[in-house]
Amino acid sequence: SQLAHIAVSSNSSGEGLTQLERGTLQIANSELSSPYVDQLDHPVAAIIFALIINKASLNITNLSSEQIQAIYTGKDTSWNQVDPNAPNIPIKLFGRQGSSGTQASFVKYVLKLGTNQMPGNVQITPEGSSSEVVNAVSTTPGAIGFADYADAVNASGSVTILEINQAAPTPALIEKNAYPFWAIEHMYTSKNADPLSLSFITYVTQNLSTNGSFIHLDSTLLTLHT
């Protein structure tokens, strides 16, 4: 048997792919499609994301696609514009940095604006990680943001996980194509990856914990998010 030391670093999906291309790591986890032709894609799971708001200041449990687009394109800047029953407080937007797979998934599958970039006319405070977004939303009145589902659940005392078009972030509603905010989780290697890296990817695929943000891939999910 062969022993290995595994070092895990946390950064964005885009940064991981860049480091893999530079040769400073052997595996890059990403929700993005790699722009590098010499990298090999290993789809391993579906990852669930959540749209969250500050629980203490807002009593909202669902937003439609149209409401979300109005918020993130700057059409609505106060919560009572989104919902007449909501308080008249400013909308505070939190997101991720430009190379984030979470943010790219939000733009592609929720906003559906036909671009990979957030609208440039709105002020979105960028955070470095999913957990930092959750912390910011949980402590800021009128805040909205997006994060890994597991991080959102862990903070469910201070943030509300929103339904999107009356659909909650559950595996069943993802498979029915009702809940849109999820993506394929990839583990990228170089095309001449060492056997140990490939064995580790096989191990992850077969033993992935599905009680948090991840669900197992099947042909239906791969077809939905090509």
Helix percentage: 25-40%
* Run of helices and strands: HEEEHHEHEHEHEEHEHEH
Number of helices: 9
Give the N-to-C terminal Cα separation: 37 Å
Mean residue pLDDT: 90
Which class best fits the helix and strand makeup? alpha/beta
Please mark out the parts with pLDDT under 50 across 5 or more consecutive residues, or reply none: none
Beta-strand residue percentage: 15-25%
Rounded Rg:
18 Å
Main beta sheet, described? 8 strands, mixed
Give a written overview of the molecule.
Helix content is 32%, strand content 23%. The protein contains nine helices and ten strands. It has 226 residues and is α/β, with parallel strands linked by helices. The strands form two sheets. Strands 1, 2, 4, 5, 6, 7, 9 and 10 form an eight-stranded mixed beta sheet that branches. It has a two-stranded parallel sheet with strand order 3-8. It has helices at residues 13-22, 65-72, 79-82, 101-111, 130-139, 149-154, 171-175, 195-207, 219-224, and strands at residues 28-30, 39-54, 62-63, 92-96, 124-127, 143-148, 159-161, 163-164, 182-190, 214-215. Strand 4, helix 4 (101-111) and strand 5 (124-127) form a beta-alpha-beta unit. It is elongated.
